[in-house]
Each structure stands twice: as C-alpha cells, then as structure tokens.
Design a protein that fits this description.
Helix content: 25-40%
Radius of gyration: 22 Å
Number of helices: 15
Strand content: 15-25%
Low-confidence stretches: none
Structural class: alpha/beta
Shape: globular
Strand order of the largest sheet: 4-20-16-17-18-19
Largest sheet: 6 strands, parallel
Distance between the termini: 26 Å
C-alpha cells in the first residue's frame, strides 16, 4: 500500500511510501485513513490498451482512418510529466497502426502538451515510447510563448482566438492521448484539454483562464454541461480536429484501471461514466486535523501539489487545521502563483492585487484564496519549498516533518485532537455523512 496506518502499541503509525515519511500519533487521536472506493487495476494493461485501440468507440480503427485520409504524417498529443498518464501503454500500438497504414516513423510527431508548464525533460520523452520507436519518431514540447510556433484556426463562440501549435496542426492526422480525473475548473481532465490548454498559445490560454471564467458558478469540478471553460475547450478541440483519442483512468496506486479509445468525445465521456462511481467520500466525522498530500506525480512542484488544499472547503471551518505536506523537488514552479501575496497581509488584499494584475498561473491561487476564506488554519511543509514561501502565502510553516506534526497539534489547541489522514483528497467529492 502506498499509504498505511498501523497500530504500534498505543500509537498509530501513518506511512507514506511516496514521500518516504512516517508520523506517529496516539491511538485515541486517530480518526481514520481515508480512501475512496477502491478502483481495480487492469491485470494486463498492455493487452487492455491494445483491445481498446482495436475496438474503438464511435470511430473507425486508427489504421483505417489513416488509410482513408491517405495520411503521410501524424501528430500525437501527449500529456506532460505532472499528469501521470501511462502514455507508454498506447504509444507503440498507435505507431504500429500508423506505420502499417504507410506513415514512416520519422513522420510521426509526439508533442508534449505543456500548456504553460515547463518543457518535457529528456527522461520524460524517453518514457513515452519503447526502444522500438525511441529515436525514430519526432518528439517536441509545445511552445506557448513563441508566437511564431502557433497558428490561429478560428474563434470560439466567446470570441477567443484559438491558436494551436503549427507543427502539430500541419500533420495529416491528429491523435490525442490523455487521462480522465476531476479538474477544479474544466470539470474533467483529458479529452479536449489535450488541445486547450495543451498545445495552445499563451494568448489563447490567457483568454480561456480569466478570473471571470474561473469564478463563473458553472466552472466547477465534475461538470461539463454548461461549464463555459469546458465548452470553449471542446470548441478548440473541434476546430483543431482530433481524429482519434485514447483516454486512461488511473487509480490511487497510479495503476491503470481502464482505457477507452476511438472518437475523442465519445471515449472521454465513457471514461467519465466509469470513474464517476468511485468519487464520493462521506466522512463519519469532522476531524480537528486533516493531514493531506497530493501523491505522485503532482508532488513534483507546489503549483501542482497544492491542489488537495483546495478541495476540503465543505468540511473545514475556523476550528480545522489543514496540514499539507509534499516533496516538491522542483520547488514552487510558478512565480505568478506567489505574486498576489508579495505585498498582501490579508486574503482581501491578495484578491484585490490579483484581480488588478491577473495572469493565467494565478488560477490555482484564486481557488486557494477561496479555501483560505473558510478560516481554517493551513499548515504547510515541503523539503523543496522554503518555509517563508508558505508563510508569505498566508499559511503557516514548519521546519521539518517532525516539527510539522508537532505544529499541527499546537495549532489545534487540543491535547488530543482528532487526526484524519486523507492523502489525494483532490481525487474525490468530500462531504459529511
């Protein structure tokens, strides 16, 4: 198990194998280790992926699409390393079908859809395909800040110019590989998000990720219908024309649970139907301390890792301590996320500065400020992020993992607070029974 809680005498030892850390608390304080409904792992994910590709939903087989278009080039949009997509399970099968259809390996382009994140590393490129195709297919990262690398393909119904990566667009065949999970604003990740924000320009992403869009009451987790951000993303994908999609569902152990392929929208909706039954978590009690962590791969940097801090609003209040930890070896990875707090001493001051100086990577900050408004005490520790960074962001800091749990107890104000461990809470809808 990645996370465990085991009785050791009169203590409970909680262990996190991702961050390689353990905490011990008195047994009487333990309010539970919370997971969602267990999601099975595929016994043979390669075979399941091949079966899905061979029997696509709402679509011809990829080889037949390629032959029908007389395609000579193909682009494959894949997710960046923070998304945990098992792209390698599908990539060779995709390449096999394209090669059999007459496309040379050197004319297959894998483009990492970074949105506004950093470019892929060589190790991340290497993980995308097996030795059979590595070094033979082309691999690039999208370049949203390079205006010359993008081309406008039309406008959304909101008037947003949709600018996508020119190299990907110019290929005869367009393929996308992604993963479905809850998304704080777009409703769900995967599917059309491969295009927007995936391979779009900064100008297009900025127009889609405005503060007004994020604050729209329909821009919420788990909702596509009526969600203005999701609608615009789908319009961008339609303009780009994704010919074939592969969508994975991954469980809390980072193991593949299901795979869907074929028409992008059809297969994506099927993945959502599959995952929806696993998302409800109802707590028996409201603890004094929530101990939370994002798990891998979101633990790479704080910009990604902070997401579990934003999804407990319905079960926290000014009496709650939300104790967050993560490794974050890449640090924060977003100056924009921190900027609203540089000259702010209150949530209100940070919000005002942010709205006056909005930039795209303040999107998570906007959501986090909503959580701060609950009045809960947010305690943060990461060996990759200085304590002062957390304290500047109106949180409380700790100096070590040992100090982290000690501080959580002190902030609760109780000798024996109820402590609940809830790793990867961002994956669920949480409420009280």
């Amino acid at each position: 198990m990645t996370y465990s809680a085991i009785p050791i005498g009169d203590k409970i030892r909680y262990t996190d194998e991702v961050e390689q850390v353990s905490f011990e608390i008195p047994k009487e304080d333990f309010a539970g280790l919370i997971f969602g409904k267990p999601m099975a792992s595929l016994p043979d994910p390669y075979a399941a992926t091949r079966a899905a590709i061979n029997a696509p939903m709402g679509s011809l087989r990829l080889i037949d699409i390629a032959k029908g278009r007389r395609a000579k080039t193909a682009s494959v949009i894949v997710s960046d390393g923070t998304r945990g997509v098992p792209t390698h399970l599908a990539s060779d099968y995709i390449c096999d079908e394209l090669v059999e259809a007459g496309i040379a390996p050197e004319d297959i382009l894998f483009i990492v859809a970074v949105g506004l994140h950093r470019p892929a590393t060589e190790a991340e490129y290497r993980a995308l395909v097996s030795d059979k195709y590595y070094g033979k297919v082309k691999m690039i990262s999208s370049t949203p800040y390079d205006e010359a690398s993008s081309v406008c393909i039309g406008n959304s119904s909101r008037g947003t110019p949709v600018e996508v990566n020119r190299q990907a667009l110019e290929c005869d065949l367009h393929i996308a590989v992604g993963r479905t999970q809850l998304h704080a604003m777009a409703g769900w990740s995967g599917g059309r998000k491969s295009v927007l924000p995936g391979i779009c320009s900064y100008k297009t992403i900025f127009a889609n990720h405005t503060a007004q869009m994020i604050l729209d009451p329909m821009t919420i987790r788990g909702k596509l219908e009526g969600n203005p951000m999701a609608i615009e993303m789908q319009e961008a994908a339609d303009l780009y024309r994704v010919d074939y999609g592969v969508t994975f569902v991954v469980n809390d152990l980072n193991e593949t649970s299901a795979v869907f392929a074929g028409d992008l929208k059809t297969s994506h909706l099927a993945s959502i139907d599959y995952i929806t039954g696993y998302l409800e978590v109802k707590l028996d009690e409201k603890p004094d301390i929530f101990v939370i962590t994002p798990g891998a791969p979101f633990n790479q940097n704080f910009y990604q890792a902070s997401r579990p801090m934003r999804h407990l609003n319905s079960v926290i209040d000014p009496h709650t301590v939300v104790a967050f930890y993560a490794g974050c070896p890449e640090g924060v990875q977003s100056e924009d996320m921190q900027r609203p707090f540089q000259n702010a001493h209150t949530v209100e001051e940070a919000e005002k500065w942010m709205f006056d100086n909005w930039d795209v990577q303040m999107d998570d900050t906007l959501l986090f400020l909503k959580s701060l408004r609950t009045g809960a005490k947010f305690l943060c520790y990461s060996p990759g992020v200085e304590r002062e960074v957390f304290e500047r962001m109106l949180c409380l800091g700790a100096d070590s993992y040992e100090d982290f749990m000690k501080r959580a107890y002190e902030l609760s104000g109780k000798e024996h607070p109820r402590v609940m461990f809830y790793p990867m809470c961002q994956n669920y809808f949480t409420s009280l029974k």
